[in-house]
Design goal:
The protein is an alpha/beta fold. The protein has 17 helices and 7 strands. Helix 2 (31-40) crosses helix 3, helix 4 packs across helix 10 and helix 9 (135-151) packs antiparallel against helix 10 (155-172). The relative contact order is 0.12.
Amino acid sequence: MNEERAKYGTFKDSRKAPIHRWFQYPAGYSYKLVTEKIRQHGIEPEDGLVFDPFLGTGTTCLAAMSEGYDSVGIEAHDFVSKVAQTKLSWAEYDIDSMREWLWLLGKKMSLNSVKKSAGNDFDSMPELVKKCYSESNLRNLLGIKHAIRVSVKDELSKSLLNLALTATLRTASSAGTGWPYVAPTKYGSKKQEKSGEDEFQKHVAMMLNDIREVRNEVSNPGDATLIEGDSRVRQEEIGTESISITICSPPYLNNYDYADRTRLETYFFGDATSWSDITKKYRNKLMTAATTQTKRTGFDPKKCLSDSFWSKAPEIAEEITGYVTELSEIRLTKGGKKSYDIMTAEYFEHMLQIMEQVRDYSRPGAPFILVLGDSAPYGVHIKTETVIGELGKALGFSDYSIEELRTRGGKWADNPQRHNVPLRECITTLVR
């Protein structure tokens, strides 16, 4: 297996790439995949838009933009969509004014109004955040937050500085703040806390240097449009048959709660203060890929899919119902009794809805490329890459192919609580 291609489903390449690296989201994939697939399929800028129905922090649109292609992406998670928009606005920032503001940061933080607001903010900050920093460091981080709010009037500049502060939250803490979890415990801690102010200065300097570098390299960037919305329903901003290629990585069927993974950031900025807030503001807007999104009341595994699903893809509906029924039986023997059965049914129901939209947006012959991982909840092996391919054919795509990128799950081999089903990460390519 090609070692370089094996990284395409991961964020490893993007961690070092200008602008892509501004926010290292755990569910990202390589920007190199986007450029390779555009070239592989012979897509030209005049052919139509590059599309991503799971835009995340902007990788697909950012890569297309740098190659001179117009693009559009949809993202349902409010916090994540703001990150994407900040990255996609790289051509518009006033570098000199932000360097000047950064030079005066100490004075901005010492303003009485800033210190008072930061003090009040500290008193009401959720305990999770307080456990991640020393009191002095958290007060300084809050000082930066309120200095930005008080002294930066330009919304573009404010978004960039807030993203730098967002990145600082993970690197400045002595807690275990690597993805996917925040672990403010002795077990998950790092050796040393870093100065929030120093880390913020580093992040801003890096971001401004990235902007200068990319502007020098990209003379004619494409236009990128971000839609904060639901990929399961029609978005009128996207015209019928306007898409020349779709490149995306849907959530994997692996019980990863995207809403919970940004808890540190949303708590710090005051966008949420509790599990209930996160559910209302984020979790309820996302397609189902975690058991935390499910409700068991009235669930019948034999009737887990809609009549619409059965009418459009009866063979796939029967296969999925088989998985769901088996999971419903197994869960009763497990201590946690996790609702993997409901999660699986809703996952494919939502994927069908999204794939229908992509079909209608795409011009004839347009490739629909999905980076996918299979899964084995409670040891039940669900070949997501094949199910999606067959579902696509049932919905009117002409054919599909599967390309393996890498094997997965080996690091859990010694965990007795885990299944022992070999997993892989693949690219499923459908053709309109």
